[in-house]
Amino acid sequence: MPSIAHDPEHRLWVLSGPGSSYVLHLDDDHRLRGLHWGPRLTLDQAVSLLRYPAPGRRSCEDPADGTLDLDPAGAMRYAHAGLQVRFPDGVRDLELRLAESAESADQGGELVLRFADRHYPLTVETHYRLRAGTDVLERHLVLRHTGSAADGPVTVARADSATWVLPRLRDYRLSQVRGQWSAETQLARTTLPYGETVTTSRRGTTSHQANPWAMIDDGGASEEHGRVWSCALAWSGSWRLTAQRLPTERVTVSAGFGHDPVTQELAPGAELVTPVCAGAYTEGGFGAASRLWHRYVRDHVLPHPDEVRPVLYNSWEATEFDIEVTAQIELAEKAAALGAELFVMDDGWFGARTHDAAGLGDWTPNPGRFPDGLTPLIDRVHDLGMQFGLWVEPEMVNPDSDLYRAHPDWVLHHPHRRRTEHRNQLVLNLARPDVAAWLHGTLDDLLSKNAVDFLKWDMNRPFTEAGWPDAEGDPDRLWTDHVHALYALLDRLRADHPNLRIESCSSGGGRLDLGILARTDQVWASDNTDAVDRIDIQHGFSQLYPARIMGAWATDSPNPYTGRRVPLDFRFHVAMTGVLGIGGDLNRWGSDELARAAELVGAYKGVRHLVQLGEQYRLRPLGDGELTAVQYLAPDGAETAVVALRRARRFGHEDPALPLRALDPSARYRDTATGAVHHGAVLHTHGLPLDLAADDHASLLVHLVREPAVATRSSGEQVPLRPRGTGAARRPRRPPAG
Questions:
Q1: Residues 295 and 321 occupy one common structural domain
Q2: Has 423 been labeled as part of a binding site?
Q3: 480 with 237: CB under 8 angstroms?
Q4: Does some domain include residue 57?
Q5: In Å, what is the CA distance from 25 to each residue of 2, 50, 64, 404?
Q6: Which of 1, 211, 655, 720 lies in disulfide reach of 690, CB 3.0 to 4.6 Å?
Q7: Number of domains in the chain
Q8: CATH no. for residue 382?
Q9: What is the rounded distance in angstroms from the CA atom of residue 410 to the CA atom of residue 426?
């Protein structure tokens, strides 16, 4: 169980999860130091760390640099500061003293340390929350202006949610993901250079180019071995993450919302609450770190963690903007015959949206395409036993729309500056209460009048000209208020429509983070549906985020984005490593393709509970040859699924057997397709033999089920035994049919 231990005499706190501890110490100057982040320690063991000699002061350096858990600007500290303010008289330094500490046992345990500036009316609370059953520690700050109107506002230049202090290592390697549109979440591991390595988004969204998480190891960690320190920010707007390596070999990672040069004004009596930044220490390599984050997302972030996501069909690649009711019904019938459980109609169903330059913002069905509204299509989809989903992009507007003509002031804009259009769109200012209220009413009306089960919530445009000319007070607050309004809108819609499920989409993976995941059920990982490219994208995705939220489609060949030709099985098997969807033009698929696709959908449904709710093991990570493979294991270990993918076969080499992970070495496992029986110990050591085709882009799905244990009676008769721990195993419920 998580615990918080406090030694008042030494002003020391130990926050412990099942396998790790984070130790805080308040020094004589009231500076909060990160004393330990690593294996679990008792309070006595943590106190003994105070006997280690503190680093002495060197010329022009403060030994506190790189050691402070709460890291305000001031004094002789010249390294990165996670808390930076400016008072009305121009003073920027902070002198904080601990005013109060409080602990609670709510939902695992929370520690709050409240500091007050020695002179100015500002308090800073640093919050630490331990969740039951995880080594992930959640942190955030609360800043309060405690003065009167006469004191004026405090300008907050930076308020990072957390500064994580790492122990000294033999070296430091930084793992992150980079990318761009259609090439998101590509894993990059590099030696951490000296100085400040800043990763950021200035776009108003999480972005395709980077994602707000980082992992650090000593350069020697592998997929299965080594210590890893990691953190992730739960925020869906602009953000900054600074990994700092000092010449003294002190390393910190500091993360928070916002970006330079945007500031926030804190008025008298007001407070600023930063988003959560969560962190974790793990042993067992990057694989163990990923599995810890996957469990944390499922257990403590997602709104419906026990559901398995349905197999969906999306109409976009089949029709694009050429949408009308009869053709959509025909596609729905073909999708249902394949075994799809959710039919999603994409862009083009509303207003004057016959192309991408008009209609966005007018969320009523196009009367020429849907003369009787959406009801006939929805009813037919439900009659086919599927749920119905709809594409929306609520935060955007086309200048050629009824909404923009009525309210041109509702978009982000500056006076005397052009309004840059991207994708023929402008961004609605959700920070305005009237815009947020209108949007809620419009979407609530759409959902109330139509039996919509699922929204594909898109956001295709970054912020530009991010102004609010008629704002009262600080116009820069729109950068954060827009995100808070988005969160409030999603929360309210879900409360009003509890059966609604939502997919986060932002031109693919442009809005993927722990903040949006608390309000959605899955994420569209990339607009690039090329199966070969998706292997790289999905590998980086899996470093932090679980398969049960990763939308992945099997689409046409040649691929509409890259032109690459890939076999149907390979396309499906790549998509099966996440939430399977189908996005191809079924009108062009032959009867053999449709029949095989139905078989593959059925095979996915047989292992879906393992992929979406099980533990993921990357057996052959990228960079380890042309063969890559992923294993998914049931929580009780009774069954496992393996997806093996070979992009190319070189020199006629045989495919190596795949050593599997975490199986019972004394048990036997039966292949549900072939009936072959394998010993767990042999699968661990020698591996699972592969029977891949000799062609390039070969793939295989293997489903293994543990055989019942067998005892032998004195008569020689063999009697099946029930394996321990499997009787109470809970099967996840299937998605509703309609």
A1: no
A2: yes
A3: yes
A4: no
A5: 19, 9, 12, 55
A6: 655
A7: 3
A8: 3.20.20.70
A9: 10
Q: Say if residue 527 carries a ligand binding annotation.
A: yes
The total of other beta-carbon atoms located within 10 Å of residue 562's CB is 15
Spatial contact of 293 and 275, defined as CB atoms under 8 Å apart: no
pTM over 0.85: yes
Q: Provide, for the chain, the percentages of residues in helix, strand and coil under a 3-state DSSP scheme, each rounded to the nearest 5.
A: 20, 30, 45
Rounded Cα gap, residues 69 and 128, in angstroms: 11
Q: Are residues 221 and 362 in the same domain?
A: no
Q: How far apart are CA 465 and CA 645, in angstroms?
A: 45
Active site residues: 458, 527
Residue 306 lies in a domain: no
Cα 4 to Cα 22: distance, rounded to the nearest angstrom = 10
User: Within this chain, do residues 153 and 236 fall inside the same structural domain, yes or no?
Assistant: yes
| pLDDT of the residue at 55 | 65
- Cβ atoms of residues 630 and 577 within 8 Å: yes
Q: How far, in Å, CA of 603 to CA of 733, rounded?
A: 17
Q: Is 93 annotated as a binding residue?
A: no
* pLDDT interval class at 585 (50, 70, 90): very high
CB 58 within 8 A of CB 31: no
695 closest CA partner among 644, 647, 657, 624: 647
CA distance 582 to 311: 8
Query: In the chain, pLDDT over 70 holds for what percent of residues?
Result: 95
Per-residue pLDDT at 570 exceeds 50: yes
Q: What pLDDT score does 736 carry?
A: 37
Q: Is 470 annotated as ligand-binding? A: no
Residue 569 counted as domain residue:
yes
The confidence band for 620, taking pLDDT boundaries of 50, 70 and 90, is confident
Whole-number pLDDT of residue 720: 52
The reply, when asked if residue 347 is annotated as ligand binding, is yes
Strand ranges in 576-666 using DSSP code E only, listed in sequence order: 579-582, 615-620, 627-633, 639-646
Between CA 322 and CA 648 the distance in angstroms is 37
- Range 669-684 average pLDDT: 98
Q: Give the separation between CA 329 and CA 343, rounded to whole angstroms.
A: 10
- pLDDT value at position 654? 85
Annotated binding residue 309: no
What is the per-residue pLDDT across 443-499, written as a single tens digit (0 to 9) for each?
999 999 999 999 999 999 999 999 999 998 899 999 999 999 999 999 999 999 999
Is the pLDDT confidence value at 729 over 60? Answer: no
DSSP β-ladder status, 668-671 and 698-706? antiparallel
Note the pLDDT of residue 157: 97
* Rounded Cα gap, residues 651 and 638, in angstroms: 38
Beta carbons of 94 and 85 less than 8 angstroms apart = yes
Residue 731 lies in a domain: no
Amino acid found at 75:
A
Q: Which of 317, 412, 396, 387 is nearest to 353 (CA)?
A: 396
Q: Each residue of 296-355: pLDDT tens digit?
A: 999 999 999 999 999 999 999 999 999 999 999 999 999 999 999 999 999 999 999 999
> Coil, strand, or helix at residue 570?
helix
E-assigned strand segments in 234-365:
239-245, 251-257, 264-266, 271-273, 277-283, 312-314, 342-345
Do residue 182 and residue 317 come from a single domain?
Answer: no
Provide the residue range defining the domain that includes 500: 312-390+433-456+477-611
